[in-house]
Amino acid sequence: MALQRYTKSVDGTIPIQALMYNDEELISTQDGLGIYDGLQKSLDHQSGTVHITSQRLFYIDATKRASRSFSLALSHVSKTDYYAGLFSSSPKVTLHLSIEDPASEELSGFGSWECEVCAYRNPPGLSPSAARTCEICSTPLPKASGDHTQAKSAPTTRPTTPGLNDDDIESKMLKLSFRKGGDKVFYTALKRSLKGRAWEITPSNAGTNGARSGISGIMQAVENNAQNRDADMSNALQDLEALMVKAKDMVRLAAELNERLTASSTTTANDPYSSVLSSTLTEPEEATFIRSSLSQLGLQMENTPVTLDMMKDEREWMEQLARELANILQGSEKVSSSSSGGMMKKRGIIALDEVWGGWNRARGVALIPPSTFLQVIPHLPAFTNPTITSRTLNSGLAVLHTPPYSRAAFAARICGLLALAGPKSTTEIAQEEGITIGLTVEMLIIVEEDGDVCRDDGQSVIQEKKDDILVLGEVNWWANLFIGYTWDGQE
To answer: Compositional bias (Polar residues) at which positions (predicted)?
Structure first.
């Protein structure tokens, strides 16, 4: 039957990749298949996996891989039919095989053979199409081997086994029965493999492999590598020269874009009907994208939000963020006198949450999370003049301040004010310092803890009468004169 005539037994315990030729490619795999030998079921091949390669069809039996697995060369397939199945009948693919006897074809794909001209022993593992010529001298594979010679020299009177009847359809047909589906995908892969006819493609190694042996082959390989390197270097230099020619144009275009964006921002900021927070206007998303793209090209511009992908490492990113925040707080050195400048241009102390909100408004869509903002604060003194540092008050409020609002400087200034002008209320001190009343109270409490001032708590003790109306008094602050004295315990 067709199985005995056209197939070749293989060891199914070996992985399919090891059974393939060097120039063979696995195309599709489908399990749950049964085999029909002609029109009858092959009882030994009713549950297995079929692999389609560029040159062969492999059947790997599910139960007895070593003894019931086989391969079929696709060169024997002359026609295919597809049956989609009906009711309980499973889909089937019919392979009509060629009439010629495949036993006459050389199937020594995994065997080695010695060339009659150069005596080179060609290695095994090549497909029949690749093994037809010698790898060294391209001499064709001898068509007759010793076994065939002996078979031909046998007496003509020796009885021979009757050949199979070519007219018998069953001897030239195999069916694949798909018990678990996948028939359409498999049939498409089969048709593609048959259409490719990879078994007829003979590698052209006459002009190349012959020079790969010996010293001449090594020298030719070195020369080819050198030529390839020279060609690559030449192409790279040409690209570099073209880039250098265009570099001036790129810089000019970047400058023009920057001028347009800056002019647009300045026009909006100077508009008398614009928002009060014009100094921290949010840039449009398109403008931010343009500035970021030009920065990635190495064309640095002013007012460009710094992002992590522009920097080499995280430390450089933190330093650039600190420089950007310094410009937000104190204003750029190039800011004109008519501009409002930075957030702390006229303020010596500011709350940390206000700084974070204003910075993110200025950055547009490239927002900075609070965790990153807190990591930038320690780097800020290196990029500010006068130095801006952070400070946490007793209530937990975190602020940024200039040197005049440090603990010692603020205490000295308050003591001097009280010594010259006498006691002052909290409101009066807040007006004098230009800060909020709540922040003034926070800082005065710290000065009081240091013993530099003392309070006259008029809220609960002293009442003043104005226009026949009782008004609660306010806390007044006095300079502490009881410094350097030691109480002896006597009244």
So the answer is: 151-163
